[in-house]
C-alpha cells in the first residue's frame, strides 16, 4: 500500500498481462495434446484477484482493490426497499385520498365559485351577442310563454285526456295518459296466467312448435 497509486496501478496491469499470457500458453499446450492446466493447474497467482462486476477478465490484487475509484466499484449497491403489500398500502387510504375532503380547507370552494361566475358571464355575453346578431339580420324573436300544466278543455280522448265526473260538487279528475278499462285489465291478467301455466307445464319442444306456428300464421 506504500508504493503509491501509480506504482500500484502499473503492477496490477503487469500481473493481469502475465495472467493473460499464461492463459494463452495453457490453451496452446492443450491444443498440442498436452494436459489442461487451466482446469487442473493450481490457482496460485489469481486466487486472491477480484473482478469488478461487469468487467470480466481484469482483476485487482492486494492494495489495488483500495485505490480511489476502485473501492467504490466493489461496494455493493444497497438493497431496494421492500415492496409494500396491498394491505399496507390500503392502511393509508382514506376519504381524503379520493378527494372527499378537498373543500375542508376552504380554498377550493371560493376558486370554484369564482370560475363558475366567470363561465356564466361568458355564456350570457355569448347569448347576448348572438341575439343582437339575429336582430340585426331582421329576425324577430317570438317569445311565447307556455304553461305546461294547462289543460285544454276540448282535448280529445284519443290524445289521452279523459274526464271523469263524479257527483255534484266533486273535483274533476283529468287523466293525461290512456287509462285501460276494467275489461282490458282482466283480459291482460288472463293472458298472463295462461303464459305462466304454459311455461310451467309445457315442454321445450312444444313451446318451440308453438312459436313456429305463430310465426307461420303471422301472429
UniProtKB/TrEMBL annotation:
Keyword flag Membrane: no
Region feature Disordered, mapped onto this chain: 134-178
Keywords: Nucleus
Chief localisation class: nucleus
UniProt keyword Nucleus, yes or no: yes
Localization: Nucleus
Gene Ontology cellular component annotations, sorted alphabetically: nucleus
GO biological process, alphabetically ordered: generation of catalytic spliceosome for second transesterification step
Biased composition (Basic and acidic residues): 159-170
Pfam families reported in the protein's UniProt record: Isy1
Biased composition (Acidic residues): 139-158
Family, per entry: Belongs to the ISY1 family.
Protein name, as recorded: ISY1 factor
Species annotation: Heliornis fulica (sungrebe)
Lineage: Eukaryota, Metazoa, Chordata, Craniata, Vertebrata
Amino acid at each position: 500500500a506504500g508504493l503509491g497509486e501509480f506504482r500500484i496501478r502499473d503492477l496490477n496491469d503487469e500481473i493481469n498481462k502475465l495472467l493473460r499470457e499464461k492463459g494463452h500458453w495453457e490453451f496452446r499446450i492443450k491444443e498440442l495434446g498436452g494436459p489442461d492446466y487451466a482446469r487442473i493447474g493450481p490457482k496460485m497467482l489469481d486466487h486472491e484477484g477480484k473482478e469488478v462486476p461487469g468487467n470480466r477478465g481484469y482483476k485487482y490484487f492486494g492494495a489495488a482493490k483500495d485505490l480511489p475509484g476502485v473501492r467504490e466499484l466493489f461496494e455493493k449497491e444497497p438493497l431496494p426497499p421492500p415492496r409494500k403489500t396491498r394491505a399496507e398500502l390500503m392502511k393509508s387510504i382514506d376519504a381524503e385520498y379520493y378527494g372527499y375532503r378537498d373543500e375542508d380547507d376552504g380554498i377550493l370552494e371560493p376558486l370554484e365559485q369564482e370560475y363558475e361566475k366567470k363561465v356564466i358571464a361568458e355564456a350570457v355575453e355569448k347569448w347576448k351577442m348572438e341575439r343582437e346578431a339575429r336582430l340585426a339580420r331582421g329576425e324577430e324573436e317570438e317569445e311565447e310563454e307556455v304553461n305546461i300544466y294547462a289543460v285544454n278543455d276540448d282535448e280529445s280522448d284519443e290524445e289521452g285526456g279523459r274526464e271523469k265526473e263524479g257527483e255534484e260538487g266533486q273535483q274533476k279528475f283529468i287523466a293525461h295518459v290512456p287509462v285501460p278499462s276494467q275489461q282490458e285489465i282482466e283480459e291482460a291478467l288472463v293472458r298472463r296466467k295462461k303464459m305462466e301455466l304454459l311455461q310451467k307445464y309445457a315442454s321445450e319442444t312444444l313451446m318451440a312448435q308453438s312459436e313456429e306456428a305463430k310465426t307461420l300464421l303471422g301472429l
